[in-house]
Design a protein that fits this description.
With about 280 residues, this protein is α+β, with helices and mostly antiparallel strands. The chain has helices spanning about 45, 65-75, 125-130, 140-155, 165-175, 180-190, 190-200, 250-265, and strands at about 5-10, 30, 80-85, 100-110, 215-225, 225-230, 240-245, 270-280. The radius of gyration is 18 Å and the shape is globular.
């Protein structure tokens, strides 16, 4: 394992430059990385409560409290928790507030090497039958898209999203949508975008303009049918990383996160990043 130091990113906005001097420096850590089915008519997209203006999204702050509140509003469920991951070691799982079901990784897009990371042993169309994938359509919305990737692949019943919740309706309405159609759904839905505005402008960091060019990006790691995927809304589909043996989602994901950070270290001697776990209690 690499013994170079890697700085865990403080709670800067998702997609906001780490060197933003107005961002608070608390929570900064240094760790060592040792059959064909009929799809519904697309008229559904045109019958929703649409945004009249051009859609913008302020970058979310990498703050577990904001993420947890955003998820609770989408699902109308209080079982969701979110927590910082202080180390990419397996032992850090014991400090989480519940069972980890998704991992969010925020990293700088300073290298082209990360674009080549990930693999797929299955045809893309076969993977898309198993994994809900969403194309990012709005600039700086990588945070909300990562959260939606997690919820869309985890929620299976009403125990995690009530029948009256926005999330329940999204899953029902977009069941047979393509990734692009899901992305358009999110970009046009009024309630979703209002929540993004509220939570994107919350937190302790200096607010960042929605159209700012930011070099950080957020992705989601999630387990589907005992397989681990990295979901990145900028790409064309899910990235299959490998199998998950038993109840080892967290340990398997930490292994792949370390590999991912090592790719970043191939070009940089020090890498700032942030990792959070979405948990169920």
């Amino acid at each position: 394992m690499n013994d170079r130091k890697i700085n865990n990113l403080p709670p800067t906005p998702l997609g906001t430059a780490a060197e933003n001097r107005n961002a608070p420096l608390w929570r900064t850590f240094t760790i060592y990385i040792t059959a064909i089915r009929m799809r519904p008519s697309l008229s559904l997209l045109n019958s929703m409560a649409l945004m009249d203006d051009e859609v913008t999204c302020p970058p979310f702050e990498s703050n577990p409290d904001i993420i947890a509140s955003f998820v609770s509003d989408l699902t109308e469920c209080e079982r969701w928790k979110c927590a910082d991951i202080f180390s990419l070691d397996v032992e850090s799982e014991q400090y989480l507030p519940g069972k980890a079901v998704a991992i969010f990784l925020l990293y700088p897009m300073q290298t082209t090497a990360v674009e080549r990371n990930g693999r797929s042993d299955s045809p893309e169309d076969e993977i898309l039958k198993q994994v809900v994938f969403i194309k990012q359509m709005v600039k700086n919305s990588c945070g909300p898209v990562a959260i939606m990737h997690a919820l869309s692949n985890i929620i299976k019943d009403e125990t995690l999203a009530t029948k009256t919740s926005w999330m329940h309706n999204f899953l029902k309405n977009s069941r047979y949508f393509t990734p692009d159609e899901r992305g358009r759904y999110l970009s046009k839905d009024r309630m979703f975008n209002q929540l993004c505005q509220v939570y994107g402008n919350s937190g302790d960091s200096e607010p960042v303009e929605s159209d700012a060019n930011v070099p950080l990006h957020f992705v989601c790691y999630v387990e589907v049918d005992k397989r681990l995927y990295r979901l990145d809304g900028r790409k064309s589909g899910p990235e299959y990383l490998g199998p998950v043996a038993g109840d080892n989602f967290f340990a398997t994901t930490m292994f792949h996160c370390k590999q991912f950070v090592d790719i970043l270290l191939a070009e940089e001697s020090s890498v700032e990043f942030n990792a959070m776990a979405l948990c169920i209690t």
